[in-house]
Amino acid sequence: MTDAIELDVSHVRLQDRPLVVCDVDDVVLQFIAPFEAFLESQGHQFLPRSFRLHGNIVSRSSGIALEDAEVTRLIGAFFEAQDQWQTPFELVTLTLEALSKEADIIFLTAMPPRFVDQRRRLLDRLGLTFPLLATEQPKGPVVQALHGDRSLPVAFVDDMARNLHSVRDHVSGCLLLHLMPDSAVHRLAPAAEAGIQRAEDWRHAAALISVHITR
Ligand SMILES: [Mg+2]
User: Residue 42 burial (CB < 10 Å; 0-12/13-18/19+)?
Assistant: First the structure.
């Protein structure tokens, strides 16, 4: 399947070696835990009643769910100030640094693109200097555009089943790893379909990626 994509990836120059494409929120940087802390600081509370933010954030004083537009505004305010809130998962910096000796690493984040400068600064400060693409388009066509028809190994890591399914449907032979934090809301996440491997943590993900890219 080939879909036209609006995101220009032509500035990303891949070397002649394996590719690892990696989501950012709740894979590289903590999202849900610091977002909950941010909401508390604003007088709100996240109630993980389903796998979504909209409809599940309530005012601490009234208990009433915030309007969708206010939730969207709060998500933007959080991303605007992300460097004060978001921290990396354990081992992620060391693991990606080690993997980058064997493979190109690309960050593909579904964050609204207007916050890409803030994210770039935060990742750079953490030593995570790999190329960053921000788009709210489906991820499969983006990974397809990056990898093209190269016969080199490719791996994709994400916490959202729908992103893993999108990449599976566009990039044949891609190692698909489902990596997510053990949070109350992630326990409500839709399951990934057959053929997608669960990685328990970055140590486990690195072992699975190493096997895939060195065979
Ligand atoms: Mg994510």
Answer: middle
Please, which residues have CB less than 5 A from ligand 1, an ion?
Answer: 23, 25-26, 159
C-alpha of residue 62 to centroid of ligand 1, in Å: 30
Task: Please choose, from the candidates 15, 53, 50, the residue with its C-alpha nearest in 3D space to the C-alpha of residue 32.
Answer: 53
CATH architecture designation of domain 19-30+87-213: 3-Layer(aba) Sandwich (3.40)
Give residue 16 CA to ligand 1 midpoint distance, Å: 27
Return residue ranges of the chain for CATH 3.40.50.1000: 19-30+87-213
Q: Are 34 and 86 in contact (CB under 8 A)?
A: yes
Residues 94, 205 contacting (CB under 8 angstroms): no
Q: What are the pLDDT digits (tens) for 60-106?
A: 999 999 999 999 999 999 999 999 999 999 999 999 999 999 999 99
Q: What is the Å distance from ligand 1's center to 108 Cα?
A: 9
- Candidates 87, 80, 114; CA nearest to 31 is 87
Residue 105 near residue 202, CB atoms below 8 Å: no
Nearest Cα neighbor of 157 from 106, 102, 121 is 106
